[in-house]
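Re: the 172-residue chain
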Amino acid sequence: HNMLLWDHVEFHINGLNQHTVCVDLNLIVFVNITVGNMSRDKGYRFIQCEDHPFTSTQGFVSEHRLMAEQYLLNDNNSIVINGKKYLSHDFAVHHIDFNRLNNNPKNLLIIESNKHVGMHRKLHDKKYFLSYCEKFGLNPDIARQTLADFKSGQYKKYKKSIPSSGALLDKK
């Protein structure tokens, strides 16, 4: 399985991304890549995995989706393609603590796509937000700040706090 782990890939409208960190089986290199007309700099990590059936046109899949597919699939949220289970497009992967760089399976929740959108809409309601934080054991002040940081693009300070998922490369 040839996979490259991209730490902080930034897709820009002009298509040029400089100083992207690429980890290939724990070898760190600095590369420049051209990715075409995409805008994806929202704090997510992407992995080049060209044999995955749900890649972007450039052959990337979000790391949180791959982590969910490795650790959180069941018969209700998966689809089988060529004998292998993948996350169905009817489902989304939610970051419980709102940190899009925290792809630990314990921080990921597979949820029906329409319910995921509805949940994010409800998070604007203070009572719902506090209930959500209580349910998942989150400090409301920290959760609110993390959510605001990622929405506004101020997530760079989180980059070093959550390690990349070496488990994607090391899982036996």
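Helices lie at 63-71, 113-122, 126-136, 140-152, 167-170.
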